[in-house]
Specification:
- This protein is an alpha/beta fold.
- The protein folds into two domains: 59 residues, no CATH class; 177 residues, Rossmann fold, CATH 3.40.50.300.
- It contains eleven helices and five strands.
- The chain has a five-stranded parallel β-sheet with strand order 2-3-4-1-5.
- It is elongated, with a radius of gyration of 23 Å.
């Protein structure tokens, strides 16, 4: 094995290529491979190493509430009002590329958070950035950044996330400041990124959360413009 080549690969942080070169050099098959095949294997190994590192970084940054959630474990039934065709379409992640909202509603325990986390997990594994928030935490986070003079930076940061998950949009009416923050976040992302919202309230009741008709219309109009709506039904999944 050419130790100088190995040293240079490590120095250049091409650790996947270095590992593969070491592995090939320890066996006899490298002598039977064409130079082009050796290069292809080295590049493939480096590419896969970097892909895995990126996915790990995306998953860590996403702060997914249920890290183990995945679409493969989703339970479909007529009682749940969840169609395989809908999830199959979402599993392509095309909704992210098309900047489409995903609006999930349903009673407590029907699996809204699990489905949201599964989609966030899928997005990260396909190279998209994601960020999970409960709505109350989002409002607290932005309000705190605003007090420190980082309001615009916080909005810009939220606006760049490819899939923003806002879970537990509840029945509590938002204050004027909270309504403004929520609107600014949605406006920053409108037609540029994808937002997923989970709520116990039926979609047509969301206007009441924002109370002020003008703000409610502005927010809901942007969310509903391009959206996949999923209304989960049935008994609580937690009983199972």
């Amino acid at each position: 094995m050419d130790m100088e080549t190995l040293r240079k690969l490590n120095e250049l942080k091409l650790l996947g290529m270095a590992d593969k070169l070491r592995e090939l050099s320890e066996g006899k098959e490298i002598r039977e491979l064409a130079p082009g095949d050796v290069v292809a294997q080295l590049v493939d190994c480096e590419y896969e190493r970097r892909r895995k590192n990126r996915v790990s970084a995306l998953l860590k940054a996403a702060q997914i509430r249920i890290p183990s959630a995945c679409l493969e474990d989703i339970e479909y039934s007529i009682a749940r009002n969840l169609r395989k065709e809908t999830i199959r379409e979402l599993s392509s992640c095309e909704f992210i590329d098309k900047h489409t909202s995903v609006l999930i509603s349903g009673a407590c325990g029907t699996g809204k958070s699990y489905l949201a986390c599964a989609l966030a997990n899928l997005a990260c594994r396909n190279g998209y950035s994601a960020w999970y928030f409960r709505v109350s935490r989002l409002l607290e986070y932005v309000a705190a950044e605003k007090k420190m003079g980082n309001y615009l930076k916080a909005l810009e940061k939220l606006g760049k996330v490819k899939l923003l998950i806002l879970d537990d949009l509840g029945s509590n009416v938002l204050t004027a400041e909270q309504r403004q923050i929520f609107f600014e976040v949605i406006e920053e992302r409108y037609l540029r990124t994808s937002t997923l919202i989970g709520s116990q309230l039926p979609v047509d009741k969301w206007y009441e959360v924002f109370e002020d008709p003008t703000t409610a219309d502005a927010i809901c109009d942007r969310l509903f413009h391009k959206a996949v709506k999923i209304q989960l039904k049935g008994e609580s999944m937690r009983k199972k």
